What we know:
There is one protein chain. By secondary structure, this protein is mainly alpha-helical. The chain folds into two domains: 3-185 and 298-327, 3-Layer(aba) Sandwich (Rossmann fold); 211-294, Tyrosyl-Transfer RNA Synthetase. Helices cover 54% and strands 7% of the residues. The chain is built from 13 helices and five strands. The protein has helices at 16-29, 42-45, 52-69, 86-95, 100-104, 107-113, 122-136, 150-167, 213-222, 241-254, 258-265, 270-296, 299-328, and strands at residues 3-8, 35-40, 76-80, 142-144, 176-178. Strand 1 (3-8), helix 1 and strand 2 (35-40) form a beta-alpha-beta unit. Helix 9 (213-222) packs antiparallel against helix 12 (270-296).
Amino acid sequence: TQRIFSGIQPSGHLTLGNYxxxxxxxxxxxxDGIETVYCLVDMxxxxxWQAPETLRQQTRExxxxxxxxxxxxARSILFNQSQVPAHAELAWLLNCVARLGWMxxxxxxxxxxxxxxxxxxxxxxxxxxxxxxxxxxxxxTHIPVGEDQKQHVELTRDIAAKFNHDYGVDFFPLPEPVIxxxxxxxxxxxxxxxxxxxxxxxxxxxxxxxxxxxxxxQKFRKARTDAEPLPGxxxxxxxxxxxxxxxxxxxxxxxxTQDQVLSQFEGKGFGDFKPALADVAVSVLGPISTRMGxxxxxxxxxxxxxxxxxxxxxxxxxxxxxxxREIMGMILSR
Length: 334
Ligand code: TYM
């Protein structure tokens, strides 16, 4: 049987990259007739410092963003990672399956640790094994993610395959990364060679789902571009990463192809294109941020919904982790 699982870290405001690359696609998958399980991964978030009250607030905000974007807690399981013990428990078991050499190849760790890797948390290093636990605790088969998470899903496959091989079982299905749609890698508005990220120190580098219309317009106005007018087709954007990114964002928001967008703006400069882009963005994001505000007005209700989701998530994951312990030779005391 198939099961979709994915997660987002509540380590800041969710961005337009998270929306187009992940959340919007999570919503679309709800209609596939396959079970969908979506997780706010607060235990991943704490691999770098999070002030406690901020983390709690950001986790509720992320839950509100999921629901405002169209995740229906009656059709999807929506929950918070730390409320379901299977994640931490299975992560330890998988830490003992994953190889150091595999972890050392993770590019996201290398990027995040930078030159100062002696002083990052052990959790940041082990993070991909926790992600493997998230996925494998549900026997998930399809993992919708943006481009940057591909390597982590591949590592999950390696861990699952090694477990199955070492213990001589056919227990964990090998999950498939599902990286599709027009916006698998939305780039920073300040630098066309970096991805748009919640944790970029520059707020001007990203659109947050919480930004109001004026802020969105201003950030696009200030977005870095070249000085050339727009070409007539996507071919002409080849060596223009910033221009390509903005056209791509427009296309992803409006549901058109890049060529369709360019046929409307051929020969126009960014002075014309950027306000039009802001309008499309506001028309899509405005209603989402309004609904987010409505959900956030009642944090107790968000906590109730997450609690219910955690109950459903636990019902699936606890037996899978118990079986994992049994396969590994542990005594099942309870
Ligand atoms: P996170 O929180 O960094 O990002 C959440 C999702 O958004 C996608 N994404 C983007 N897509 C397109 N353009 C961008 N600029 C962009 N930035 C982020 C990410 O690819 C991701 O799909 N480790 C994961 C969270 C996680 C997870 C999991 C995902 C934990 N456990 C299990 C899947 C399955 C992360 O840090 O995502």
